[in-house]
Amino acid sequence: MIRLEKRPSPSRLWTVVTPVLAVLATMIVGGLMFWAMGKDPFETIRTIFWDPLFHETFGPYSRPQLLVKAGPLILIAIGLSLGFRAGIWNIGAEGQYIMGAIVGAGVGLAFYPSESILIFPAMVIAGAFGGWAWAMIPGLLKVKFGTNEILVSLMLVYVAESWLASMAQGLLRNPDGMGFPGSRNLARDFPAASNLELISGTGMHWGVVAAFIAVIFAYVLLSRHMLGFQVRLTGEAPRAARFSGVKPARLILFCLGTSGALAGLAGLFEVAGPAGQVSIDFGSGYGFTAIIVAFLGRLHPVGILLAGLLMALTYIGGELAQLMLGLPGAAIQLFQGMLLFFLLAMDVLSNYRIRLTKPEAA
Amino acid sequence: MTENESTERSALLTLDGLRKAYPGVVANDDVSFTVWPGEVHALLGENGAGKSTLVKMIYGLVKPDRGIMVLEGKAFTPANPAAARSAGVAMVFQHFSLFDALNVAENIALGMDNPPAQRELATRISEVSEAYGLPLDPARIVGDLSAGERQRVEIIRCLLQDPRLLIMDEPTSVLTPQEVEILFHTLRKLTAEGTAILYISHKLEEIRALCEDATILRLGKVVDTCDPREKSARELAEMMVGESLHIPTREEFKPGQVVLAIEGLSLPSPSSFGTALRDISLKLSAGEVLGIGGVAGNGQDEFLSALSGEVLALPGVITLNGKDVGLLGPNPRRALGLLAAPEERLGHAAAPDMSLLENALLTGAVRENLTSRGFLKWGRVKDFTEKIIDEFDVRTPGPENAARSLSGGNLQKFVIGREILQRPDVLVVNQPTWGVDASAAAAIRQALLDLAAGGAAVIVISQDLDELLEISDRFTALNEGRLAKPRPAQGLSVEEIGLMMGGAHDMHEAEVNT
Question: Fewer C-beta within 10 Å: chain A N or C terminus?
Answer without folding.
Answer: C
